[in-house]
Amino acid sequence: MVNKLFPVVAKNEFKGSRISLWAFIFFTVLMTGRSIAHFLFPEYAFHEIANFALISGQPDPMVLFYRLFSLWGLAQFIFCLVCWLVIFRYRALIPIMYLFWLIEWVARTVLHMISASGNAPAGTYISGVPPGVILAPLVVGLLFILFFLSLRIAR
After folding, report:
1. How far is CA 95 from CA 35, 100, 101, 109, 149, in A?
2. From the CA atom positions of the chain, what is the Rg in Å?
3. Which pTM does this prediction carry?
4. pLDDT number for residue 119
5. What residues contact residue 43 under an 8 Å CB cut-off, 6+ apart?
6. pLDDT at position 116, please?
7. Mapping DSSP to helix (H, G, I), strand (E, B) and coil, where does residue 85 land?
């Protein structure tokens, strides 16, 4: 199992389940779209998708939030580029990429639970629950299954 997760040579051959390969490609398409929205359209993604409320002040604090959101989208996009590189050139690394995705989505779920138990009244900073939060437990479960399928030797 360790050799499947950390291959000595990163070849372009994937020995795991075909389902996990196609699911990885589909998931990377979705995450690439998400990253582009956050990177190129931070105001829309910040308010319409992530449901953050508009905060007013002088100077306008939203400029900083939009830039931070855009940088977050850029970081997501760079990670997606690495995933595309793995898909097209180094498929032996798909299991470790699944593990990285799993770590991100587990952290997202845990951090939301921690922040939801904070002291800010509901609706102070958000106008709704972001789709990434609603779907996070389902995504974690699917990624967990797909991660183990990627380690399985396909027949």
Report:
1. 21, 9, 10, 21, 9
2. 18
3. 0.86
4. 57
5. 62, 66
6. 66
7. helix
